[in-house]
Amino acid sequence: MTGVGPGTGAALARRFAADAYQVALLARDATRIEKLAAELPGSAAFPVDVADLDALRATLHQVRAQLGAPSVVLHNAVAGGLGSFESVAPHMLEQRFRVNVTSLLVLAQELAPAMVAARTGAIVVTGNTSAWRGKAEFAGFAPTKAAQRVLAQSLARSLGPKGVHVAYVVIDGVIDVPWTRQAFPGRPDAFFVRPEGIADAVHHVVHQESSAWTFEIDLRPAGESW
Question: How far apart (Å, rounded) are the C-alpha atoms in residues 123 and 2?
Fold first, then answer.
């Protein structure tokens, strides 16, 4: 799993570990993921910046050598930021494409073949509302999430008939982590999406019966205006 932060990433890791999965934790913060791995039996930390594609491929080789070929791939890594088209630096947009989109391509190239050979497996990508529409201040971020969603759709069309389930989870709301509570003071609990709720939904999608697979699922808190 990529993008193991203190919110959604940690919740996903704990949810799948609770179901006896060995979880490979990929993120830049070695201290954080090593601490989490120590809490989850059979899991392991693999520090890496997924934007470094050569390093990502090497890390995935290490994952397979240590834990075996994965049956589930969760791409939760994200790079984003606000800015209108006038202010976005082109190199930042390209960097975000690497994290959000190109690394997903590498994950599929490296890990899907074993799933196809076994005719089973799942690849789930976590997205957000920017995958649907580009607002003015998201010019340096929304294009990458839209591309990510379309790439996931292409993967689903290629891999679905071969027994591999690909799904895209749109999180349409503010995730409940300490910094968002500070950014939105006074908001009720119903305004926030709990990471544990996201993790439960992803776990459910991964285990859907193959005659009724979901490609896209959107999650939002009860208090979200949409």
Answer: 12
Q: How many whole angstroms separate alpha carbon 195 and alpha carbon 199?
A: 6
Listed in sequence order, the DSSP H helices in the chain are 8-17, 30-39, 53-67, 90-97, 103-118, 142-159, 178-183, 195-206
H or E stretch covering 24: strand 24-27
Domain ranges of the chain: 8-219
Instruction: Quote the tokens at residue 14.
Output: 């704990």
Say if residues 17 and 40 touch (Cβ distance below 8 Å): yes
Distances in Å between the Cα of 118 and the Cα atoms of 71, 111, 162, 174, 211 are 9, 12, 9, 37, 18
Using DSSP's 3-state secondary structure scheme, residue 2 falls into strand
CATH superfamily of 8-219: NAD(P)-binding Rossmann-like Domain (3.40.50.720)
Over residues 115-172, the pLDDT tens digits come to 999 999 999 999 999 999 999 999 999 999 999 999 999 999 999 999 999 999 999 9
